[in-house]
Amino acid sequence: MLSFIKDIELPFKIPTPDKTIKIAVTGLSRSGKTVFLTSLINQLIANDKLPYLNEKLGRTFVARLLPPDSVYVRFDYYSKIKAFRLKQPKWPKATRSVSKTTLQLEFKSEYRLLENQIINLELIDYPGEWLMDLSMLDLDYKSWSKQMLDLADEPKRKVYTDEWLAFLQKSNLYSKNGDESIEEKLHDLYSEYLKRLHYGGFSFVQPGRFLEPGDMQDDPLLLFCPLPEPVGEADEDSIYASFERKYNQYVSEVVKRLYLEHFQAFDTQIILVDLLKTMENGYDIFEDMHLSFKHILKSFTYGSNNFLKRFFKPQINQVIFAATKADHIAQSQHNQYKKLLEILVWDLKKELDVRHIDTDVTLIAAVKSTYDVKAKIAGKEVDCVRGIVEGEKEFSTHFPGSLPKHYTDESFWKNANFHFTKFQPVSFPMRDNHAVEHIRMDKLLYDILKDHV
Ligand SMILES: Nc1nc2c(ncn2[C@@H]2O[C@H](COP(=O)(O)OP(=O)(O)O)[C@@H](O)[C@H]2O)c(=O)[nH]1
Ligand SMILES: [Mg+2]
User: Whose CA is closest to atom 5 on ligand 1?
Assistant: First the structure.
């Protein structure tokens, strides 16, 4: 009966409406956004390494990249993949701004009388550092400054602040200022402090734009930093007043605009997390990363009567947290690796759940550049990974450390002693008829597509 319907042909086809799924991919710098998007496009075009996706969807499709359709910088898949196809393959260069591309999926209709279904995946790649600034929308200069100064006063951060705070203390901040170079110096020293934090493994820095300026490099609008509140009124021509004006302008022209242009409505937000960094650097860095994601997600996890919610009403259906670069760890440890991410985001996930936003926590390696082997260390057999270390020519075996069965034990953080090697990427197949090896990309793709196909 069913096969009879399937084969009916009409002089016309019954149309199926096109769909667009807007997918925002974000994560802190070096979390793996560019590599992830390159692999995702490669996987869907080749579609030879996605058994889970194909089995669950049960539909045949072709994927094609559409030509650029907007003023956005296009995510240049072709130049990224070229570097991966070199004889000595290379990771893509660091990217510093928003880029966008559309991958069109055409699903073969199940019935001849139906037109094929078109699903456009609109993929947008944002620096997480920019999103971190969204929480500034809620704060005036005075409150923001206080928050930043309190944070700088925490013992784990204080060690990085010396120069900035010393200069701040000897500067005349509240009366008429005749020397513009002082403003510049204050800003530079504050930026320097943020950079030092960043190199120390910290991720929560505000404004995130100071680290990832994108097209605002050297823009005078960014020439400010937090300052202590004046005792009385600050002079109109003082440094304090000037910084307050720039802060307000930055928030309303840059942060708000980003929010209005990009974050009004999209279906899925993928947040990529580099957990390896927290495992190498310990508990403070883990907690600090949690703070960053709290700020990044603030626009979605706020209560109902807050400023952002009242004015912008963001629409979002799904947030996927994915721990990246899982190929640094043997498969036997993957569930524990995922559990660590669950611990990192548990409260954010709860906040999203209660607002009817679907959440998923998963792990991936977009470009699997190692394979698992067993080796003996001090007579004990351990699970290791084998790959080519960057700059070398031959494969070597690496034991990164092992994750505990339970994380309740604080000694995990105290004694954690992980070392991750930077591996050269495996070479991509020369044509898009074959995709690169990955870990669990098909599960993630299914999560994105399952409610739309
Ligand atoms: N082994 C491995 N390394 C990865 C993977 N994804 C990213 N990396 C590493 O992380 C670095 C940063 O990735 P990238 O995508 O440029 O990060 P972005 O700044 O978030 O766009 C790369 O240069 C690689 O060294 C992966 O799947 N496997
Ligand atoms: Mg990038």
Answer: 325
Does any domain span residue 284?
A: yes
Helix (H, G, I), strand (E, B) or coil at 255: helix
pLDDT of 310 > 90? The answer is: no
165 C-alpha to ligand 2 centroid (Å): 32
Same domain for 440 and 297? Answer: yes
Cα(245)–Cα(397) distance, integer angstroms: 56
- The tally of domains found in the chain comes to 3
Give dist(CA 330, CA 374) in Å, integer: 9
231 and 192 inside one domain: yes
Question: Which residues span the domain enclosing 377?
Answer: 371-415
CB 128 within 8 Å of CB 26: yes
For residue 38, give the ligand 1 atom closest to its CA: 15
167 or 266: whose pLDDT is higher?
167
Which residue's CA is the nearest one to ligand 1's atom 2? Answer: 325
Structure confidence by residue, pLDDT tens digits, 210-241:
998 888 888 999 999 999 999 999 999 999 99
pLDDT-derived band at 111 (thresholds 50, 70, 90) equals confident
CB 379 within 8 Å of CB 312: no
d(CA 388, CA 370): 8
Amino acid at 270: I
Q: Assess if residue 318 is contained within a domain.
A: yes
59 with 182, same domain: the answer is no
Q: Angle formed by the axes of helices 441-449 and 33-46, to 10°?
A: 80
- Write the DSSP string, 88-133: S--PPPP--S-EEEEEEEEEPPSSTTBPPEEEEEEEEEEEHHHHHG
Mean pLDDT of 45-61: 97
The residue type at 267:
D
306 — pLDDT class (breaks 50, 70, 90) = low
Tokens 């004889």 belong to residue: 87
What backbone phi and psi angles, to 5 degrees, belong to 21? -110, 120
| CB-CB contact of 226 with 144 (8 Å) | yes
pLDDT tens for 146-177 read 999 999 999 999 999 999 999 999 999 999 98
Q: Is the CB of 29 under 6 A from ligand 1?
A: yes
Residue 384 lies in a domain: yes
pTM attached to this predicted model: 0.93
Query: Residue 3: its pLDDT value, please?
Result: 64
CA atoms within 13 A on the CB side of 432: 17
Q: What is the pLDDT of residue 326?
A: 98
